[in-house]
Design a protein that fits this description.
The protein has 131 residues and is mainly alpha-helical. It has one domain. Helix content is 66%, strand content 6%. The protein has 6 helices and 2 strands. It has a two-stranded antiparallel sheet. Helix 2 packs across helix 5 and helix 4 runs antiparallel to helix 5.
Length: 131
């Protein structure tokens, strides 16, 4: 199930993009922890697919789109992180940084999540069907 992203008009979006980028940078320089940075980044406005959107809306949009592996949390989490990273490859560095912080994956290794996902799926398979 995909959700629609609300588009913010260009000029207000651009202004919000700059001010929210500044807020996140200030929080990082103050040494705020991951939770505070994530909360700050969730209120960021980023330029995605030719329009300005709020990071919190994009994170929810991604979460609702990850259904193929939703039964095992580690697999869902890896799929979510992988999709966030895929989106970030098409964003400006500052917008990608905001999205990574908003999603909670700024300091998370895709390789570690992949390993945890594989292990959890194998454990679930063994529990359901035996080894």
């Amino acid at each position: 199930m995909q959700t629609e992203l609300t588009t913010i008009a260009w000029e207000p979006g651009f202004k919000l993009n700059l001010s929210s980028w500044a807020d996140l940078e200030i929080a990082k320089r103050r040494g705020e922890g991951p939770g505070e940075l994530s909360a700050c980044a969730l209120n960021s406005c980023i330029y995605f697919q030719g329009r300005y959107v709020m990071t919190r809306d994009l994170v929810v949009h991604v979460e609702k789109g990850i259904t193929w592996n939703a039964q095992v949390y580690e697999a869902w989490n890896y799929g979510r992180c992988e999709e966030i990273h895929r989106i970030c490859r098409g964003l400006s560095p500052s917008d990608a940084d905001a999205l990574l912080h908003a999603s909670g994956y700024a300091d998370v290794s895709l390789d570690e999540l992949s390993d945890a996902s594989d292990e959890a799926v194998q454990e679930a398979w063994a529990a359901l069907y035996g080894e």
